[in-house]
Design a protein that fits this description.
Elements lengths: L2 H26 L5 H18 L4 H19 L4 H29 L5 H7 L1 H29 L4 H30 L6 H80 L3 H22 L1
Helix pairs in contact: 1-2, 1-3, 1-4, 1-6, 2-3, 3-4, 4-6, 4-7, 4-8, 5-6, 7-8, 8-9
Length: about 300
């Protein structure tokens, strides 16, 4: 393959990577005007490929609009969901570039696409293809993450903390990468190696944070369920006490009623009907009084 054809292929793959970044943004959450957004991104990508060397500022404006400005406004859902989706997609976009940055640092190559292009264009093409694979794979992970972690009770506990941290990490990695490229820092420079260490440490930090926040969420849910169960248990015990009291009282009334009936029967057997009737009325008044107290 000739050098010119190789350069065209590298430029094409770079443009496709830019479009994949926008695709990840569009698919992370429901988006208003998703089709129009993707069509405009594809048109801008094609324009960048054709006129990138003539109008380099257009590519920067394209990235700024399609990655940082438009998605948070076009995405649907709570602000926390939009923030975390944007942060994760930006992080994925940076991950694709940082993957190449990592290999350049480890290989002792210059941290500059133009320098690598002049020195070893095949390596640059391989890094662009690797970045494409990272963007596609991580984009699917972001969509899966948003589908799992941004619904139900997780949205009020996980997202507000995780969104801010993910956004800060993405911004930090972006700033560091831009400074390294803009300043042309050598891959053997201590700052480059320190930046590499920071970028490698960012994903585990986010994972640990997410695990801790999820653990706190589950603990809060368990405590709430325990409180509800305790309240239900207290209600059941109170109802049981009332039933037991009523059962004991009913047994007492049955015992007393049996004695009263025996007394009335004895009075009637003696022929003292008036005393028997008076006793019966007295028992009726007593039962009416008991009913009034129980009600």
């Amino acid at each position: 393959m000739g050098e010119g054809a190789l350069q065209v292929l590298i430029t094409l793959v770079g443009g496709v990577n830019t479009f994949v970044m926008c695709w990840n943004m569009a698919m992370a959450l429901p988006m208003r005007g998703r089709t129009a957004y993707l069509v405009a991104s594809g048109a801008a990508m094609a324009f960048d490929i054709v006129t990138g060397e003539v109008y380099p500022a257009v590519a920067r404006i394209h990235i700024l609009l399609c990655m940082f400005i438009l998605p948070p406004f076009l995405m649907r859902g709570p602000v926390a969901r939009r923030l975390v989706a944007t942060a994760l997609c930006i992080g994925v976009a940076i991950a694709g570039e940082v993957t190449g940055f990592l290999f350049l640092v480890l290989a002792g190559k210059p941290i500059d696409a133009a320098a690598v292009m002049a020195e070893d264009p095949v390596l640059l093409l391989a890094l662009r293809l690797l970045a494409f694979a990272v963007l596609v794979a991580c984009g699917r992970l972001v969509c899966a993450f948003m589908a799992r972690w941004t619904h139900g009770d997780r949205i009020n506990v996980v997202l507000p903390r995780f969104a801010v941290t993910a956004l800060c990490c993405a911004m930090l990695a972006s700033i560091m990468y831009s400074l390294f490229v803009a300043e042309g820092i050598s891959s053997t420079h201590p700052l480059a190696r320190a930046g590499l260490a920071c970028m490698i440490a960012l994903p585990p930090i986010l994972v640990v944070l997410l695990v801790q926040v999820e653990r706190a969420r589950r603990t809060a849910i368990a405590r709430a369920q325990t409180r509800v169960a305790q309240e239900q248990l207290d209600t059941c015990l109170a109802a049981y006490d009332r039933v037991m009291h009523a059962t004991v009282r009913t047994a007492q009334l049955r015992h007393d009623a049996r004695n009263h009936l025996q007394a009335i029967d004895a009075l009637m057997a003696e022929g003292d009907l008036e005393r028997a009737a008076a006793y019966a009325r007295e028992m009726a008044d007593l039962l009416a009084h008991e009913d009034g107290e129980s009600s």
